[in-house]
Amino acid sequence: MTKLGSWDELKKFREDNRKETSLLTSDSGKTVLAVGEATCGIAAGAKRVAEVLRKEIDKQGLENVSIIATGCFGYCYAEPMVEVREPGKKSVYYGYVTEDTAREIVSGHLLKGKPLTQNILNVEVWIP
Amino acid sequence: MSSGTGQVRIALRNCGVIDPESIKDYIATDGYDALAKALFDMSPDEVVETVKKSGLRGRGGAGFPTGIKWETARRSESDIKYVLCNADEGDPGAFMDRSVLEGDPHCVLEAMAICGYAIGASQGIIYVRAEYPLAVKRLQIAIEQATDMGLLGDNILGSGFSFNVRLYFGAGAFVCGEETSLMNSVQGGRGEPRLKPPFPAVKGLWDKPTNINNVETYANVAQIIRNGWEWFRQFGTEKSPGTKVFALAGKVNNVGLVEVPMGTPLRVIIEDIGGGIRNNKKFKAAQTGGPSGGCIPAEHLDTPIEYESLISLGSMMGSGGMIVLDEDDCMVGISKFYLTFTAEESCGKCTPCRIGNVRLLEILDRITEGKGEEKDMDDLENLGNTIKDTALCGLGQSSPNPIISTLRYFSDEYKEHIYHKRCPAGSCSKLIGYKILPDKCTGCTVCARNCPVSCISGERKKVHVIDQERCIKCGVCFSKCRFKAIVRG
After folding, report:
1. Considering chain A, what percentage of its residues have pLDDT values greater than 70?
2. Exposed/middle/buried for residue B427 (C-beta within 10 Å: 0-12, 13-18, 19+)
3. pTM value surpassing 0.90
């Protein structure tokens, strides 16, 4: 990895890599599925959910979608959790995600562009 | 701006948002900018001053002002100083620190480096529980990435300032969350506390000045440096600025982590964010502060939560564990649960804690077995207060709190146990029994088939009977009966 030698280099690195990170930026054009993989999520089955998502995405040939593992979003009761981040749209949070729900997220939400009607969590947190 | 649920995330801002194993993600959320700002735009004194003015207080439990700790460590003269992070989260039901380390490990590293610059230290140590393997793994990855990129190590960002972080694994002793015990443990000694003063900021690890803060405290630091102390003070209350993360557990619908501004009423956390009590049961109390804290009853649900208000209610902030109790929880039993924990975890160095807690536990055992005596409540209170006044460290000084707070708010429950040998919550197994009402029993055999010790007999369509001698009082029959034919009493 690059060694950063000054504050300016840090700032430049940030700008250069912004599009590559899993965070949703309006110009990235990429959809990110964030699966909560802290201890709570993993215990509830997040690893298998991520695996199913990965398989389905491969199967459907979706190239502009990436899956990342995040930490705990705090909604431990609703794990496993999957957040769908699409450019220019508000994130959709799914809770109690089973392997079946994971397949539906890919076939319904990603392919048909329609968020599922079930499993949606009303997430409202303010990050100042 | 502020959301309806009342959650405001500063310490948890990246948790569940970024990939904790990607330093690019962290940097993209302005990560390591606070460190750069401190190194290039601020003097160490200015950093200390900013933390002081922010009013940030220790999130590990006691609420000591973080800036004062930093200032003391800065003023202590020494060739070597240390920055320590207390990640020995041990309260039953508390998992805030684990979540921060698993979800955003870099924010702790960045804060420790800022602290090192402020106090004049170049070595950081994180004391983390070995029982948190995922947190350990993510910390190791983060340290490696930050070192590779020149954000830790020698001459950070060309500033001339050097700072290294290493991990030290705790073996699971609760007392090692107490700072002097923790330091003994890091040095390879027994996890035992010592008298303070001298405080760690003056004489800490290997007798060198050491700043020790908890994970959540550090998780606030980078944001304070980046946005300024005025920004931080817009959240929370005058005496307790900022936010606090709570690990909401127990009989509440939405178990999880919540971060709310200090001063938020308990009711908002339990009813709005927590979604109320499970199965429409009645709220009885909220236990905060773990084994060092106490129980807050329903009549105080509207108290704004901050360090002082919780202490005046006989509880404490603690590290942020919050266990919600309902009508089925016996308050004597809850005290016994925590006392069993502290009696086991007492390191044994001082007599009040080593022997006193065991005596307290014996009294509670007697009460829950129906052998309570009239003088027991006075004895619990006197002995409890004596232990609080005389124990060597925070563990013993707070271990009687669960008893003292439940005596204060739920003395009727103690009296029921002592005078009437009854457990009103129906939880103390020695004090309850199950009986089948002959006029209601339909002989459906469900109870008999579900009894784990097969002590219920009776023919189909005829009244069943429980063999009281063999009954283990598990309550399975009680919950399985569809005809309300089984009573507890």
Report:
1. 95
2. middle
3. yes
